[in-house]
Amino acid sequence: MRIGKTHGALSFGLALILLLTSCGGGGGGGGDSPAKAAAAPPPPSPPAQNNAFGLSSRPATASLNFPSQTTSGSVMLQNVASGFTYPVFFTAIPNSGGRGAVVEQAGRIRVLRPDFTVESTLLDISPQVVFSGEQGMLGLAFDPQVSSNGYFYISYVSQKTGGRCATASNNTCTRILRFQLNGSPGSFQYTQVAATSGQIVLEISQPYDTHKSGMLLFGPDDKLYIGVGDGGDYGDPQGNGQNRATLLGKILRIDPTGGTPYAVPADNPFVGNTQGWRPEIWAFGFRNPWRFSFDRQGNTLWAGDVGQDTWEEVDIVTRGGNYGWGAREGKHPFNGAAAPPDAIDPVWEYKHTDGIAITGGYVYRGNAAPALQGQYIYSDYGAGTLWALDPATFTNKTVLTNTTGMQVSSFGEDEAGELYVVDYFGGALLRVASASADGEAMPTSLSATGLFTSLAPLQAATGLIEYDVNTPLWSDGAVKRRWIALPEGGQITFAADGAWQLPVGSVVVKNFAMAMDQASPSVLRNLETRVLIHQNSGWVGYTYRWNDAQTDATLLDSAQSETLSMRDANGVAFTQQYDYPSPSQCHSCHTAQAGPLLGLRTRQLNRNFNYVDANGQTVSDNQLRAFNHVALFNTDIGGTDQYGASASLDNSSVNIGQRARDYLDANCSQCHQPGGPTGASIDLRASVAIDAMNVVNATPSAGDLGISGARIIAPGSKEHSVLWQRLQITSAGAGRMPPLGTHAVDQAAVNLIGQWIDSLPH
User: Fold this and answer.
1) Higher pLDDT, 9 or 615
2) DSSP letter at 672?
């Protein structure tokens, strides 16, 4: 079904598309019109209002050619259970009559009946768990003989007090504990197990708060395989990946019941060595092996290892294998290090143009999606896209692209081999099945979408409402225009704070253009038009790239880059890389925590905009007032002076601290907030107190850039603040923030945020 006048007509009434902050997207950017409203709290008096409203009536219905559901490859996801809190794993319980278990990161295990209703909380050790960023309860494995011995094992991060971690020089501790089901052999029950009944099997001191892995898995040999990340920090500063004298950066293999507290299998590769290597090691050279699995046919061990700045990788893990980290990232040298001579190449790798953190999966052996039989299915936590890798040829194809808003923290199998996806922020478990046939393809050209009645000059179709934001996102100097469209009778769910909610059928559009000669800033070349569509399954994003003739734009199915030949204001020629995002990249920044519409917020739109009325006259009106007048909101929001307004960098009427905070909010907080995809614990939302940001005088967990005494923000010293330093780096591989799609420094932001940091008391 098409979105338009003749198919469930859309009446268009609003606008915004903050596609990819990290990809030069978001609510605005360099070259946008300056903000008129001031920041809050408390807000100054809003601009004086005319009697005339900017919108006199709700615009007439426009007819657009967008599908209500796009074709999504060979599979679909069926929601079978929801209501979980930050789930990170699902597994079957062997010989339990079809039961499964979901791990919640805070420290709980929920047992599911065969119909996927919750039967019980099997374990709750949340008071013992360090739940922050990448830390928490991360792994669960049931003994293959659980029906006779009742054993199950967990992996979690705890404080270092107690046990063998207590005296180590470390930050936290990874603990592997064994518990036993209530009851007795033959009559074990899945009622709650006492939190204090766990027996410590293994403890590993952790130097930093990232890269824990935590995967637990019994292999076909009935041995327990344990995933252990390198422990952090940025770039593996302790060299743990290549150091076989430590358990960090490894996949381990033990016999958890063969000794006290465990036994090392005699056929482990480094048993009996004289170099001090740990005999528990099965394979090494991993950064953060986030989920691995055995193929049910052939017993091959597959792993997804999360990369640093550029590459994500899929590995086939073999006995004693070295997978290269921290000398290599994927197949590529890291930080100039020489590749170990025994390094094993990944069987597949992808760049951060497709995702930011791989989630390892399974070779599919179920029956619900026959087209996937024998394919290795994996995903990316940031992108939410599912891919299939063909083990016969190691070629890749996208099998599901419209999973907007999902953060795939894990996959899991039931006893029959059916595959499930764990949605972290959505708190849901979804079954992979064959796709339905109701999807339609997107228009392949911008002219075919119906968004514009003219492409030269750009003229929006009837019903699209143009708007602007107070605090633009930096987009390498691109100039942006934004529009929004709502379905017939549809309304925006208004929120004074946080993101607005738009109904299914809404469309948000943003056009990016660039002044190729900065001495003539009004002469622009269109680069791309991005479209966000609220389809039946959620929000999906697409990019149309303009041709050189500026006559039309073509739909992209993958990321692209272009080297722009430009001139500065003095006539000096220079080049600048510009990135066009893929559909999957949209989800790297349009996170579930942030909205996913990044700029459609009250503080961003609380400003004046110059509307053009039916007589061609310009009417300046507050955008909130104009929207409210034509009932685009689901409630009467009252006067606009009761709401705050964010501030642009150049709004000198607002104090420097508020401007700096608003910039960080607009450019960074969609990832850097609680539950965000970075795994870090910092919170860059402008709404939180500065002490709650977890950045002032905080030790950086993603590298110190070689700065002695570095802090995320060092009060009074921008030079010692990695947050400020990262804004000036032009290469993602060197630690640039944001890491995707932007290659030019926002010097105005660097200057202002530097002044703010220097002004902080110290």
Assistant:
1) 615
2) S
